Amino acid sequence: MNNGEPWWISLIKAAILVNLVMLAFAYTTWLERKLLGRMQNRYGPNRAGPFGLLQPIADLIKLIRKESFFPVAARDGIYILAPVVSLFTALAAFAVIPFGAGWQISHYHVNGEMANVSIGLILIFALGSIGVYGAIVGGWASESKYSLLGSMRTCAQLVSYEVSLALSVLGVVLMGQSLNLPAIVDKQGATIWFFIPQLAGMLVFFFAVIAETARPPFDLPEADTELVAGYHTEYGGMRWGLFQTAEYINMITLSALAVTLFFAGWHGPYAPLGPLWFLLKVFLLVSFFIWIRASVPRLRYDQLMRFGWKVLLPVATVNAVITALLVVWVS
Amino acid sequence: MSPQPVDTVKGFAVTFRQLFKKPITQQYPEYKRPLYPRFRGRHRLHRHENGLEKCVGCSLCAAACPADCIRVVAAENTPDDRVSAGERYARIYEINMSRCIFCGYCELACPFDAITLGNEFELSEYSRDDLIYTKDMLLAEPIKRVPIQDPSLYDTPIPYYKEHS
């Protein structure tokens, strides 16, 4: 499973990767605020450091120094555990994403991914489903009607769109003939980037990802301007920060998954730059999600549900069936 | 409403175009937008040219104040101790800035134009007590922190904030 990679290399790689993902999260918030600002003719953060580059650190210090607010009625154990579960699943999902071809450093082989799991794609969806527990349990354990209603909205939305999300990648799995992400990337490198034959699948995947990560225009779980805050109404300080972190890391992970499944991961015109191609593609996707946020107004709840069940799900199903028929017919 | 995919894509173009425009934000502490002449900021008490206070301690401002933030205690002028031009003067004149709503009714009520609303609006303090302005503070010349409309200084083609951000 580890292709002869010693355990301590995996450990070092894990430490580096987790920190890189956290760093990427911090600067995704910066990028989001900056891009949103510029798209709305504002500057965005520009006070902390040059170009506001220290803003994420300032935010972190502020959140950590805040009082650890705790509702009297809350179920203490699960209340504290919920954001941790959210963040853990978000971070853990990144382990199976391949970001390079693998390297030979002296006589050790370093894999291009953390864990070469044969069912990596299913693992990501499984972790995503566990992550939903963070939102549901967090809202429920707060013992507040606003949190409970918010977590119900979140739950309904995430569960509905998870179906389309899983179905939309079925075409990719059929074409790549594997659930192993490195194998899918290799297949794309050898044949064609899958977003061309799987255009419908990719579009469904994009919409489902936006809904899964609760980004505008599908950000009904939070809906800043309409609701108090949804499932994390009763959370404050760094516990709220953990939920927020989980959300952004989910966005990064699912962008990385989209790059892996549809845009050939680390493949690019100049092969030795592997991980940089991967980073560039993820960056472009994340920027695209921010651009969507700046451009599209929020959907109404019934529109969201109708879109999920009556548009995305049939399209994803038909796409999967047609792909299956074509794959069988060709071979 | 049916879905309008073409218009949605047009919307994306609109937001993208804004990326290359100069933001219109005014960078506040560096650049303070000039105030309009009739801006209602913090109060000032005025003196006659001969140095006597205009306020005669009639308490009409306090009566007119909807927020009840003015406190006036009057005392008689004596030949040795002449403070105002009238019969009486304000021994204590306090405005509680944490209550004031800057409506300007005190200014309207005053028969001697002794109180006017000035240009200062940066009144933040760390303590509520510091927001109670006494007569001395209201009579004193304010530290000039806020630009009053002065086209030659601030209404230039390239204002300060556009060069420095």
The assigned structural class of chain B equals alpha+beta
Unreliably modeled segments of chain A: none
Shape of chain A: globular
Low-confidence segments of chain B: none
Query: How helical, in percent, are the residues of chain A?
Result: 55-70%
Topology of chain A as a string of helices (H) and strands (E): HHHEEHHHHHHHH
| Average of per-residue pLDDT values of chain A | 88
| Strand segment count of chain B | 5
What is the 3D form of chain B?
Answer: elongated
What is the spatial order of strands in the main beta sheet of chain A?
A: 1-2
Task: List the total number of helices of chain B.
Answer: 6
Terminal Cα span of chain A: 29 Å
* Strand content range of chain A: under 5%
What is the string of helix and strand elements of chain B?
HEHEEHEEHHH
Cα-atom radius of gyration of chain A: 20 Å
What's the count of strands of chain A? 2
Kindly state the mean pLDDT of chain B as a whole number?
85
Q: If helices are DSSP runs of H or I spanning 4 or more residues, what is the number of helices of chain A?
A: 11
Q: Major sheet of chain A: size, sense and barrel closure? A: 2 strands, antiparallel
Largest sheet of chain B: 3 strands, antiparallel
Q: For the largest interface in this structure, which chains are involved and how many residues does each contribute?
A: A-B, 14 and 14 residues
Description:
The complex is a heterodimer of chains A (331) and B (165). In chain A, 65% of the residues lie in helices and 2% in strands. Chain A is built from eleven helices and two strands. Chain A has helices spanning 7-39, 55-65, 76-92, 120-141, 145-168, 170-176, 181-190, 199-212, 237-262, 274-295, 301-330, and strands spanning 103-105, 108-110. Chain A has a two-stranded antiparallel ribbon. In chain A, strand 1 and strand 2 (108-110) form a beta hairpin. In chain A, helix 1 (7-39) packs parallel to helix 10 (274-295). In chain B, 22% of the residues lie in helices and 15% in strands. Chain B contains six helices and five strands. With 165 residues, chain B is α+β, with helices and mostly antiparallel strands. The model of chain B has no long low-confidence stretch (mean pLDDT 85). The interface between A and B is medium-sized, with 14 and 14 residues.
